[in-house]
Specification:
Blueprint (H helix, E strand, L loop, with lengths): L3 E4 L3 H12 L7 E4 L3 H8 L4 E3 L2 H6 L3 E4 L6 H5 L8 E4 L6 H8 L4 E5 L9 E7 L5 H12 L2 E5 L5 H10 L1 H18 L4 H21 L4 H7 L6 H11 L2 H21 L1
Parallel strand pairs: 1-2, 1-4, 2-3, 4-5, 5-6, 7-8
Antiparallel strand pairs: 6-7
This protein binds NADP nicotinamide-adenine-dinucleotide phosphate.
NADP nicotinamide-adenine-dinucleotide phosphate binds next to helix 1.
Length: 263
């Protein structure tokens, strides 16, 4: 049995642990650490072994997941001794080289998960360094695919593109939902009906995109009759530069990720 130690068990580690348990993973193979007694207790309530002793957790694991906040990583990991364990980092913005310096050369996987992991519908980008074997890559991928979808990128700098697409992308969709709900209310629907219809529409469009072999552009064209209501709305998008707005926002997220990496 592969044993996993989560160093820091807050929102994201909890989402991953829940996914693993849902997937039938033996809770005996999972150790979760936290700092406060309250958080250790919360981790214990997941049904896994919980402790505030990070070194003990690492000594009993094959995979070590970095689940603390990025700003706490140096302080938490500097005193810890790792053996041969693979390190899987959840920490946004921290490069593989930092972990090589902190913990020595080893298999390291850097991830960029997103918040829908909390409801089992996450989208995670993964990058592995050259010390990571095919078996270790599969083990790392299994951590994330239990709470959603995981995709590898071949180059570490592409993690910033993942941030711009799916990491921050969740908020773009929330903004779209927000404005569509407000628009529907302005047109007379009550708040609850507007929210339900819009959320289901986003879900439906996403599901069709996932399940179809057609491009999103083809799917869009199929639901747009010439001279109809959808065509009118999409023409308004075009006139107001929707395409440039979305790609510009993504570029801004990407640029900010690169800037943060340098700081
Ligand atoms: N949440 C997201 O949507 C999201 C998305 C992408 C990436 N991430 C990444 O995931 C990581 C975790 O984020 P989060 O949102 O899950 O944070 P969080 O909820 O604040 O959890 C952090 C956990 O670390 C624990 N911790 C702090 N110091 C510790 C120590 N010395 N030893 C052991 N545990 C310690 C905290 O314990 P206490 O509660 O006792 O202080 C807490 O359980 C971050 O690096 C973040 O960049 C998160």
């Amino acid at each position: 049995m592969t044993r996993i130690a989560f160093i820091g068990t807050g929102n994201m580690s909890t989402a991953i642990i829940r996914g693993l348990l849902r997937d039938g993973r033996d809770p005996k193979g999972i150790i979760a650490t936290a700092k406060s007694a309250e958080s250790v207790n919360a981790a214990q309530n997941l049904g896994v072994t919980a402790t505030d002793d990070n070194q003990w957790a690492i000594d009993h694991a094959d995979i070590v997941v970095v689940g603390v906040k990025p700003q706490a990583v140096r302080e938490v990991f500097a005193p810890l001794q790792l053996d041969q364990q693979m390190l899987v980092s959840l920490a946004a913005g921290l490069p593989v080289s930092l972990f090589e310096t902190l913990c020595g050369p080893r298999a390291i996987v850097r991830s960029m998960p997103n918040t829908p992991s909390l409801v089992g519908a996450g989208a995670t980008g993964l990058y592995a360094n050259e010390h990571t074997s095919a078996e270790q890559r599969a083990q790392a991928e299994a951590l994330f695919s239990a709470s959603g979808l995981a995709r590898w990128v071949p180059d570490e700098s592409l993690i910033d593109a993942v941030t711009a697409a799916s990491g921050s992308g969740v908020a773009y969709i929330f903004a779209m939902i927000e404005h569509m709900v407000a628009g529907a209310e302005r047109l007379g629907l009550d708040a609850e009906t507007a929210r339900d219809l819009v959320a289901q529409t986003v879900l439906g469009a996403a599901k069709m995109t996932q399940e179809s072999d057609e491009s999103p552009a083809t799917l869009r064209t199929r639901v747009t009759s010439k001279g109809g209501t959808t065509a009118q709305a999409l023409a308004y998008f075009d006139q107001h530069g929707f395409d440039a707005l979305v790609s510009g926002a993504m570029q801004a997220a990407y640029d900010r990720a690169q800037e943060l990496a340098k700081s």
